[in-house]
User: Fold these one by one.
Assistant:
Number 1:
Amino acid sequence: MAASKDAPLVALIAGEASGDILGAGLMQALQVRYPGARFIGVGGEEMSAAGLSSLFPMEKLSVMGITEVLAHLPELLRLRKQLVSFLLEERPDVVIGIDSPDFTLPIARRLHAQGLKTVHYVSPSVWAWRQGRIKGIKRSIDLMLCLLPFEARFYEQHQVPVSFVGHPLADRVPLETDTPAARVELGLPESADILAVLPGSRGGEVGQLMPAFLDAMVALHAQRPDLHFVIPAANGARREQIQALLDTATDLPVTLVDGQSRTVMAAADVILMASGTATLEGLLVGKPMVVGYRVGAITYAIASRLVKSQFVSLPNLLCREQMVPELIQDGLTTDAIVQSVSHWFDNPDQADALKSRFRAVHEQLRGGASEKAADAVNQLLEGS
């Protein structure tokens, strides 16, 4: 049963690694305000370390794309039903869904209808596509916590209670990036040109993107023999998946790293990466990048008809103009990747101008996001 206001029972639901990081930061900030707070729900290693009792492993929720989700749909529906029943029995003081909106928002709707307070942390891209979802969101939550300023403006226009909290990553990442120190930490050549390659954290992403990235790496190596590549593997399974592909391309100067994606980006001169939250980290470490993405043909055919946003990558969305190349679906070719990556190496003045623009965005997003999110949740709890 729900606890007292001095020691609330807080439920959090995260479905992927980025949400796990956000959830852990929020939990720690809530613990400052409520030392006796208890946390239940679903999360990963970071949230568990912060004190979450997870009903089942978060990895069960980590799938991508429409066709990929369909393959796992029976299991996802079973887990959602199990989680809803559990939370209705426990009746926490507040339920906070973190990202993964296709999983967490339907749960919020069911719980909200049963009188529980619900919060969603990280806005879905409702401003970009399927804008009709705003009506369902408005009926499902008591509060939206937005990481980015343009998101909050959208919710205000639709009379949805919202709080812009900034992005926790902007607080974690220093304004100044120490590239030489990052290279020393990873054992990388200190004076070489380095390209960081980030094909994503999920198996489906790596399967779609890494073959294209690898072909471009081979071509770039032929043009730039002194170029060194470094790839962070999100986990053991991704390392095996990436290594199997690398084994097909001999003589590439590649360093494969376990985790440490931010350090890898800090060590690089240029980044080739999957679209997603990691592009924000690339912006925060101030690196020129090339963003690629590819999904299943059916997923893309459906999504491309629904998207209303001009850009897909966070750096371009935040700057409100195309600052970095976006190579999407059929546009993700070897020639396009090679040309876009080479552009940044060959035009250092433009790379420096990009870094200056990214610095301004970094400063805008700083300011204690986890604390602001906890304050907003605190106001919701105290208003009951």
Number 2:
Amino acid sequence: MNALRLVLPGLSLSVAIALLADWSARLPGPQSLGLSALTLAILGGMLLGHTVYPRLADMCTAGVALAKTRLLRLGILLYGFRLTFQAVTTVGWAGVLIDALVLSSTFLLAWQVGRRLLGVDEESVILIGAGSAICGAAAVLATEPVVRAAPERVTVAVSTVVVFGTLAMFLYPVLHALGSTWGISDFAFGMFTGSTVHEVAQAVAAGRAISETAATSAVITKLLRVMMLAPFLMLLSAWLAGRSSRAQRPSARIALPWFALGFLVVTGFNSLALLPAPVTATLVTLDNLLLATAMAALGLTTHLSAFRLAGPRPLLLAAVLFLWLVAGGSLINATVLRLMP
């Protein structure tokens, strides 16, 4: 009971921000801009974090910390209820290969440019790379427990993928108008959109701005890319553990992210269609609330000084990755679809 009293104030505040963000995300304005509840939650958290929250921090710290850790991991696990393995068949092995190539090339480019050319700190490079390569803010949040990044670096990473993902929503319909003159189908352009746009909501918005066909293939390709989050986290954990061992840290071991395994298990269970559709829809709604609550808690504990300390290099890194997603992603899509029509 004492533990509940300890976490209730901060948890209630985070949930309240998340609920407001979820309601706001359903309004026409935010929907037209592709602003998800996650984005609005972190913005709302940051607004309160710079105004009201400092006076409440002492009694809210425990609950906010709970939202940023345990609720976040549970939210990533429940994300599997949005996906099914059957969705892979719609875009075929070409979609799988495209997503795998886009993901791996984007993350490797992030490491090369971020660490070797720009000198960005390792945590930020991994977070920005994951967010750009996989699924935006959700990927950043899922990667944070593996790298154990500082909250301010998580916020900076989330902000960069939101900026360029939003830009993509306006750019891709223009690119489609150009591509249609070259005979690119709406379905193929939807695959390009889903394999390269950061957030699921942003991919949906960009696809719908083109056609329902483009929106459908964009969503399926995007969700397939999201499925790759779990194996990515496992490989990242193994890689980080291996680097620690080579640095003569005998205690280093693979920190297997249980929530990533849970994500795959839930996706597999959801693929069996054992639950009624209303139950699945309720679980997805709950998942939205959990992730938005985690984002709100993150925003509450982040200050604008973090952006000044980070400097322009993380934003520059995200810009380079965005250009690669557009140019390199189009090349990957065109090549794979030509070889695997």
Number 3:
Amino acid sequence: MKTNVLIIIFAIACFSCKNDVKQVPEQDMKNDSLALMERAKAIHERIITIDTHDDFEISNFTDSINYTQDLSSQVTLPKMKTGGLDVIWLIVYTGQDTLTNAGYKKAYSQAMSKFDAIHRLVDVYAPDQIELALTSDDVKRIHASGKKVAMIGVENGFPIGLDIKNVEKFYNLGARYMSLAHNGHSQLSDSHTGEADGVWLNNGLSDLGKEVIGEMNRLGMMIDVSHPSKEAMKQMIALSKTPIIASHSAARALSNESRNLDDEQLQWLKQNGGVVQVVALDDYLNINKMNTRNKKIIGIQKQVADSLGVKWYASKEEVMALKPQEQNEFFGYYKKVLDLANAKANKIEGLPPNVNVADLVDHIDYIVEKIGIEHVGISSDFDGGGGIEGWNDASETFNVTLELVKRGYTEEEIDLIWGGNLLRVLDEVQAYANSLK
């Protein structure tokens, strides 16, 4: 009987202690949350937010349909204003095709049409709202004027063809970074996709690719390693006189995708002085979470695709086996199908969670710990497959800053992550080019 009494007394005491420890006035919790929110808003307003990878459709760059309107695309000027996204790198992307004169000519034409579309946006359709920047000083000046900022990156050096003079032509049109490959080996560089079958074309860089690295250094164009192979990256760093960037990649230790950078690559990047722009693309942030969720909702995805009259491919292997034109078509509707399916799936109780902003910042935390805060930035890959829960379009950009504040990053650190590091690399690349003149 005495033992039972002692147990009861002990249980009551523990319960009281537990309540004492956890008891926080609800009003204080609300005040703390409001204070954190207001602090995050103030920081977000003061810093310059730079997203280094935004794809686009030329059909959205016309006199009647363009980014001055709130289109269904993930990036528009209204969405940028709502979310406080200051700088977008619009991407001159061409998919990998045959390494023939006909293939090069077609890709060159596609690239030039995208350059032309960007210039129409900033020069004709919305010069009062957005301006093209070529330097970090341009970025700061345009931002101070109240306008949004556009910059240009080239995804895939394929449209250069065999004429190295095209590198300077792209530079003169505003390109300030370029990757030498995409999803498939180019005439310049092997792609990360070669890892799947172990088949390589160039064993890293081709002779022309090596010349292109030197030309990019001479001009002041940043070298992007987000799609080239690991060996190609190694060779680029050995050849380059300037820091490199990974415009839209993440940490492979957290998500085992070949486009992500493993710990060895992160160390190379640190030693080179470069920066990796963590990408808000679900698979690249948490492939395990995505696989678990997709198994549960694949039926819904197929239903949505059928209702739109398009074909759904459930695995990456299926997508990579498609012809270049078929891949481009798939990625054109991929995000729409995914978003509609997720909207339906989120009504299902107990569904595995989606990849979200916390997963994005997990990668930032990891990279900061591994190689330092000076080597990490942010990208979305919007309108190219990117977008996660909490940052699914430019209007939700603030949520990334909020999560960084929650994790304890200071304003100075957030400023570096959101763009300071990237502009530092751009400055160093351009300073080297100027030193040669």
Number 4:
Amino acid sequence: MKKRSILLVLLVFLVSLLSFASGVNNVIFFIGDGMGANHMLLASYLEGYELTMMKAPYTGYALTYSADSNVTDSAAAGTALATGYKTNNGMIGILPNGEIVSTISEVLAKEGYKTGIIATSRITHATPASYYGHVLDRDDEDKLAEQLVNSNLSVVLGGGSKNFNPTTRKDGKDLIAVAKENGFDYITSKQELNSYSGDKVLGLFNSNHMNSVTERSDNEPLLPEMTAKALEILSKEGTPFFLMVEGSQIDWEGHDNDVYGVWKEVVELDQAVKVALDFAKDHPDTLIIVTADHETGGLGLSTGSPMNLEMVRSYQKTTDWIIANSSTSSKLKENVKKFYGYELADNELKYVENSSNKIESLSEVISKKANMGWTTHDHTGALVPILAFGSGSEEFTGIMDNTEFPKKIAYLLEVTFPDLIQILPQN
């Protein structure tokens, strides 16, 4: 009986070891910048169906506070998601005491993984930069660009060529040339991306941020298109990989309190998630995680009266576009009538015209018309959703701190990652 018990224990151990070892090889990590649960739910209501990301078999919520505030910025949140450490707002890849910490993508690259980042912002913006950068000030994007071209990333797709171009950098350095010397192929258009067949690419599709999804130019790829190409490149040799994909501009529409803009940006992210899930059908050793760095805007799906979804479905432009294309009061009224379907009242027109931020003020008006409320034009300290699919997804449930993501990914990939330093928020 004793021998049988020992054999049974050994058998259970071997089975568990084999099942773990055959688990995760690839990780696709989606970040909806500023995306709270209500942003996601609003997009689902407006689309009239359950979003792909909402079908996740494992779900939870993440805490987002930074080392020096209950309300994080994207630099501190990105650092937590990439390194497993809390830091101060504004800092990337560096702790409050000045210590530089490794990112999950840097650690995995040293272990032989291919790594990539995608964003619809400048690729040197806070969240994507958190996966390769180390600066005291997130605004030091020229330095971040230099760190990027000297990094071990394999795929980099987004906006922000001005930080790499010698004519627009303060120091005049030609980082495109440096990138090419370091093995990157450089592309600048959707057409070049579609035809690309190499192994290491830097794709910058706008001198600044890419255009919003509703105004994306023909030369700029959509997020699902960039995701599909990145997966093609990263997986073609069978090497395990880590890919971070950011839906950057959900945050900006949240800052504007633009319900139409939030809707369209969340849907673009969801379409990229679908691309990843289609990839995972043929690659079952793939873990897919969707979360956010923080919530933006404090979106409420009511003002005390039911949402007027049909009204929002009739909206056709962001408030940013409306204001940019309304040089006079009469043109503003004309555009609101044409693209939102109603006449601006005199008091509404006066409120927008006299505002220091006409975009935000118009957003307040169109949100109120549809019975949707916001608490702020800034970030909040709200919990953000966690949605996980595929191998290892059962690890991402309940209420987690944002620092747990890279540590759990490292655990699933059997890679050593630095211990967590717990730093409590300061009021």
